[in-house]
Amino acid sequence: MRIGLPKEIKDQEFRVGLTPAAVQSLCQQGHQVMVQAGAGAGSGFADSDYQTAGATLVTDAATAWAQELVIKVKEPQPSEYAFFRPGLVLFTYLHLAAERSLTEALIQSGIDAIAYETVVAPDGRLPLLTPMSIIAGRLSVQFGARYLERQQGGRGVLLGGIPGVASGTVVILGGGVVGTEAAKMAVGLGARVQIIDLNVDRLAYLETLFGSRVELLYSSPAQIAASVPQADLLIGAVLVPGRKAPTLVSRDLVATMRPGSVIIDVAVDQGGCIETLRPTSHSQPTYVEEGVVHFGVPNMPGAVPWTATQALNNATLPYVLKLARQGLQALASDSGLKGGLNVSSGKLIHPAVRDVFPDLAARPAEMAAL
């Protein structure tokens, strides 16, 4: 199969869809890989690394997109919509629940689009979302600590405190992968940490990890209303696969937080769970609303591309190899990969995304080709 690897163009997105090692694996199986010049530079991979691995270097994005299978990291940007066409298989993060215009463009083009974030493992895990969730969870505390600094507009709170001065308080909404990793980092810094979650079994599991070092609370409007005003750092870590995250923190509740507190919503690319938070970028990561510093960068792992690219490739490569070998027929033999199909031949396929955009899902979504 002919595989294209275009350079990411989202603001300061330095990850790349395939490492040279992944390209080598594909080429050894007889596939042709077209890599846009400079695609791996942000992750520390030179064009010569890809050529040594067996790839063909191309100078423009159009050529990379002109292949049968395109591998990316982030959702296509508007300037890339013109590359969509029938017969093209796209494998990348999509997060369509918060991207109506992209959803419409995918449907109108006839492309087959498979989203990393909705591929499901046999045990129900989201294997292609997990590595980036781990990184984003850890970064949320790292960024939060930075923006609590007075020079960054924050309260001037040291999360770990010092003897004689109280530690900062970190409140985490959601105890999944992101929330767990955020808590690990916050506990490591010496902060006071709360995790709020609806799943009692998950809270019980988290107790085996953290013991008494983290306060584990059942989620309710009353509990959230009690915890949020005490937070120096509030982290939104709520994800509903394929759907927009529910709004758990209203503007009125944000207004009760102390001036200079910080909010980071890791699920901002799925709409986020905090009313006042909107997507930002690595170039302009924060803004102040209701006196609170808001950080809404949707591609947080792009800040650590050397780590993130390799972690992502470790998870995606088995699926890429299967798609390269079998094309869309791979979905027939792998129900988890089939769950990743969001749009196919002009039809909206994934049930969660269909629920978000019922008007776009008016046509039946049978997968006759499979």
Give a short synopsis of this structure.
This protein has 370 residues and is an alpha/beta fold. It has 13 helices and 15 strands. The strands form two sheets. An eight-stranded mixed beta sheet has the order 3-2-1-4-5-6-14-15, sandwiched between helices.
How much is the average pLDDT?
A: 94
Written as H for each helix and E for each strand, in order along the chain, the element string is EHEHEHEEHEHEHEHEHEHEEEHHHEEH
Under CATH at level 1, the class of the largest domain stands as Alpha Beta
Radius of gyration: 21 Å
State the fourth-level CATH superfamily of the largest domain: NAD(P)-binding Rossmann-like Domain
Low-confidence stretches: 364-370
* Oligomeric description of these chains: single chain
Shape: globular
Q: Which structural class best describes the helix and strand composition?
A: alpha/beta
Number of strands: 15
- State the end-to-end distance: 19 Å
- Biggest sheet, in brief? 8 strands, mixed
**Total domains:** 2
The CATH architecture of the largest domain comes to: 3-Layer(aba) Sandwich
Total helical segments: 13
**CATH topology of the largest domain, which one?**
Rossmann fold
Strand numbers in spatial order across the main sheet:
3-2-1-4-5-6-14-15
Strand content: 15-25%
- Into which percent range does the helicity of residues fall? 25-40%
Keywords, separated by commas or semicolons:
seven-stranded mixed sheet; 2 domains; 370 residues; Rossmann fold; alpha/beta; 13 helices; disordered C terminus
What does this structure look like?
It is a single chain. With 370 residues, the chain is of the alpha/beta class. It folds into two domains: 2-118 and 305-356, NAD(P)-binding Rossmann-like Domain (Rossmann fold, 3-Layer(aba) Sandwich), CATH 3.40.50; 130-298, Rossmann fold (3-Layer(aba) Sandwich). The protein has helices spanning 20-28, 47-53, 61-65, 100-109, 130-147, 177-189, 200-210, 221-227, 251-254, 305-326, 330-333, 335-338, 351-356, and strands at residues 2-5, 32-36, 56-58, 69-71, 89-92, 112-115, 169-173, 192-197, 214-218, 233-236, 262-265, 286-289, 292-295, 341-344, 347-348. An eight-stranded mixed β-sheet has the order 3-2-1-4-5-6-14-15, sandwiched between helices. It is globular. The model is unreliable at 364-370 (pLDDT under 50).
